[in-house]
Amino acid sequence: MTSLGYFDYLGSAPLDPRVRDVMVEAWDHPGNSSAQDHAFGWKAAATVTAARHAVADALGAQAEEITFTSGATEANNLLLLGAARAAPSGRRRVLVSPIEHKSVLSPAQGLAQEGFELTYVAINESGRVDLDALRAQLDERVAVVSIMAVNNEIGVIQDVAALSAIIGASAAFFHVDATQAPAAMPVDLHAWGCDAASFSAHKLYGPGGIGAAYLSAAAPWRPSSLVSGGGQEEGLRAGTVPQALCAGFGKACQLLQNQGAEDRVHAERLRAKMLAVLRRHFPGAEETAATSPRHPGCLHVRLPGVDAADLLLRLQPKVAAAIGSACTSGQIGASHVLRALGWDEAAAGEALRFSVGRFTTEADVALLDDALETLWATAA
Fold first, then answer.
1. Which of the residues 7, 22, 143, 317 has the least number of beta carbons within 10 Å of its own beta carbon?
2. What values do phi and psi take at 338, rounded to 5?
3. DSSP strand E in the chain: where?
4. Measured between alpha carbons, how far is 377 from 237 in angstroms, rounded to an integer?
5. Does the annotation count 298 as an active-site position?
6. 157 pairs with which residues across the strands?
7. Set 194, 253, 298, 327: catalytic member
8. pLDDT tens figures, 153-195
9. Cβ of 331: how many Cβ atoms within 10 Å?
């Protein structure tokens, strides 16, 4: 895909050329899917409907349970804020894990300003939810629980089905930020048993600017909408639906459904090679979440004694990796995820996230090796 070493797939995966082709075709046909007075509108509506079915099929849902959004951030806000505000009057507590994406933590903190009681779910040192502690935190006053399926920084995977069983017993609304999940593992929303989930196309080789909010037909209540307008998306999310982006999202889901298992094996293999390269240059490199179920393409590593920000800066523009997650890039201080795991500022400052995927090659890993070799030679 590029002559540079791109190792930031969890930030944004490259657009698959096959997805681009589908989008270009859709862009060549004007029409608003809500315009049902002419053939152009009918064609646009058919494109959106086909995309909705493709997304639902890939995620183990029904098409009518999928609402298109501008991305996972909007979906997280819609499902968390909407579900809390629409909850029965006696339910005024919100539970979230402390390692959620900022698009969950920020609205959750906003709900606290509205009078909800915000509680953080207990996690262990690897980032997995403590199920016994969660049981103890649940009661009939809980409105919404939001726990991400796959962490976007360290890659740890939660047992969503087990969480659903526990949370369902309290009749609370269970939302899952599943943004990173499709590239990390097979997703079957009905088997998971959650009430709602959020997705973003650009994490699975689709276009930026399009995502989805899954709302189970069996959810205990329907979230209130955040955006009012023409009543699109069954009134849950108003606004003209972008047919070309939807078509791209649908194609990306079809491709993932067909080759996701192959992608994951490929990512795991190259991840291992990259770890070996890092350990050759940094013998003390410590892999985060090494034994826990984790995203096969995510390599979060601590390099003791190394200023990670300085290292990444000196590797520019040859190597793209990340310090923390893209949502917190540029912020001062340790990652909130690493702080929640008990890391101090010094340890967090030694951590980098490399992530690989479908288009990563052994040549990319070799480029990283050469870049580090050149860096040491220059320093000497």
1. 317
2. -70, -35
3. 5-6, 66-69, 93-96, 117-120, 142-146, 173-177, 196-200, 211-215, 286-287, 298-302, 319-320, 351-355
4. 55
5. no
6. 150
7. 327
8. 999 999 999 999 999 999 999 999 999 999 999 999 999 999 9
9. 12
